[in-house]
Specification:
The chain has helices at residues 4-14, 72-83, 117-133, 199-202, 205-220, 241-248, 253-257, 318-323, 357-362, 413-419, and strands at 21-37, 40-58, 61-67, 98-99, 139-157, 161-179, 184-193, 223-224, 228-234, 278-281, 302-307, 310-311, 332-333, 342-343, 347-350, 366-379, 384-396, 399-405, 408-412, 422-423, 428-436, 439-447, 450-457, 471-474. With 477 residues, the protein is α+β, with helices and mostly antiparallel strands. Strands 1, 2, 3, 4, 5, 6 and 7 form a seven-stranded mixed beta sheet that branches. Strands 12-11-10-15-22-21 form a six-stranded mixed beta sheet, covered by helices on one side. A hairpin with a 3-residue loop joins β5 (139-157) and β6.
Length: 477
């Protein structure tokens, strides 16, 4: 999109009044969305957003300016605005931009722009029809959403880094509403990946829709969930909501450095069960949170944050890494050119263990099986959480029993991880858009089947402390 010479001039302008570091992030992003509701296509839209963000770091201060004028003059004007925040005298920077190569590569088989709108609409209609076919009387509403994003980025910084990248993501979301006249229940499923339209060669949209609708119908006859402390088995299919929300955010370096995390200053300490290993891996193929480079031009890599229960690392961007005199580990992410980067998760998971998932259920005399997680809230400072259970079953004498509804899980993320006593050999993924400081980022979360010997079941996921800034509301994609 822009040649190196122009970018070098922009960086020189950004550091014209001093400063320790500057970068330029240029973005060209095309987004397509299709929505179907009440049996008809409600929207088919697409848009193009082009712009650039320029950042200047001076000591602990960060200045950020952005513009949708990516001409040379437009970039220089934004750089001049950002440069006014710099403190101290001008430093001598000799910027020689060198192209950075990724440590992993991804290919896109069917680019979204090469697929006709009619084909995309056909996927949505097929999913909607499949959902309604589950039970034509009880399924009252089906909402289907399709989306694809083609994002091209260029980044250059005063350390000499030059990066060009392209990210293509495709997703499908189905929400079904069922009613028997007295009760209303919902079922939800979402699939997505760092890929093009080939997503639907790997995953049948009809199967996704039927799963959502079936869950909604089954929940109509489900019994009220029991209340109290009990063993809970979380299936791999439940996804990694627990590890992402109640643990992952606490491992982001900006929160640990501000002492807003229970994991602050605990590197080398035992913070979880020895059966628990937590990693974030943006290099995984076909995962929604994957990328070649983060949004600061750092090649993606696998990062192990907790190894056999011991805290080993945090997730860093450039700024937080610089504060600790180390290198970033590739987790500086931003929603768009209008936002400065922050330490963010990508594909976060509890690593698989060695126990057969079926054996975990058999070894649990009585308790609750969580097959699918819902929304909820978490206090990112303390790790306290309340999560909805979207699909759950009683466990009786080591067997899966009746379906239950209205269950919630209440506890503390770090404390729960400490008492996990069985970890399965499977691994299940879910996708979502993670919110932080007003920014959204595509992520995947995963976990194997795990057993928590005791956790509080029951209550409500809507707390009274709505004005607490540390309370994070969790919404599905």
């Amino acid at each position: 999109m822009l040649d190196k010479q122009i970018l070098k001039e922009v960086l020189d302008m950004a550091l014209g009044n001093g400063g320790d570091f500057a970068d330029v992030f240029v973005e060209n992003k095309r987004v397509t969305g299709i929505g179907m509701e009440a049996g008809r296509i409600e929207r088919v839209n697409s848009g193009l957003d082009v712009g650039a963000g320029i950042r200047v770091i001076s000591g602990d201060a960060t200045a950020y300016a952005y513009t949708n004028d990516i001409s040379k003059d437009g970039l220089l004007e934004a750089a001049q605005i950002a440069s006014h925040a710099a403190k101290g005298g001008k430093k001598d920077f000799n910027i020689d931009l060198t192209t950075v190569k990724p440590l992993v590569d991804f290919t896109f088989e069917k680019r979204p722009e090469d697929i006709k709108t009619e084909e995309k609409v056909a996927v949505v209609k097929s999913a909607e029809k499949a959902a309604r076919s589950v039970d034509k009387e009880k399924i009252k509403q089906v909402i289907v959403g399709y989306g694809d994003t083609v994002q091209k980025v260029v980044l250059a910084n005063s350390n000499g880094v030059f990066m060009e990248d392209e990210r293509i993501r495709t997703r499908l979301v189905v929400n079904a509403v069922a009613s028997d006249g007295d009760t209303i229940q919902t079922g939800y499923e979402a699939v997505g990946s760092l890929c093009g339209f080939e997503l639907f060669s790997r995953i049948e949209p009809e199967a996704v829709a039927k799963q959502a609708a079936t869950r909604a119908v089954q929940m109509l006859s489900a019994k009220p969930a029991p209340v109290g402390k009990m063993p809970v088995v979380m299936a791999g299919e439940a996804g990694g909501t627990m590890v992402h929300e109640a643990c992952g955010h606490g491992l982001e370096a900006d929160l640990t450095q501000r002492n807003l995390s229970v994991y602050a200053n605990k590197k080398g300490q035992l913070v979880a069960s020895e059966l628990v290993t937590v990693v974030d891996d943006a290099t995984l193929e076909d995962k929604y949170g994957s990328y070649r480079f983060d949004d600061e031009g750092v090649p993606s890599r696998k990062v192990t944050m907790i190894k056999d229960g011991v805290l080993t690392d945090y997730l860093y961007d450039y700024l937080t890494a610089t504060r600790e005199k180390r290198e970033s580990n590739g987790h500086g992410r931003r929603e768009s050119y209008q936002h400065k980067p922050l330490p963010r998760m990508a594909n976060t998971m509890i690593a698989p263990g060695k126990t057969d998932p079926e054996k975990i259920i058999k070894e649990t005399k009585n308790g609750l099986l969580v097959q699918k997680m819902g929304g909820g809230q978490v206090n990112t400072t303390t790790g306290d959480f309340v999560f909805d259970v979207a699909e759950g079953y009683l466990i009786k004498d080591g067997e899966i029993g009746s379906m239950v509804r209205g269950a919630t899980l209440t506890g503390n993320g770090p404390e729960v991880l400490k008492i996990v006593d069985l970890v399965g050999s499977d691994l299940g993924f879910t996708i979502g858009t993670c919110g932080k400081d007003g920014q959204g980022a595509p992520v995947s979360d995963a976990q194997p089947t795990i057993r928590i010997p005791e956790i509080v079941v029951g209550g409500t996921a809507h707390g009274e402390d709505d004005n607490n800034p540390n309370i994070k509301r969790i919404k599905r994609l």
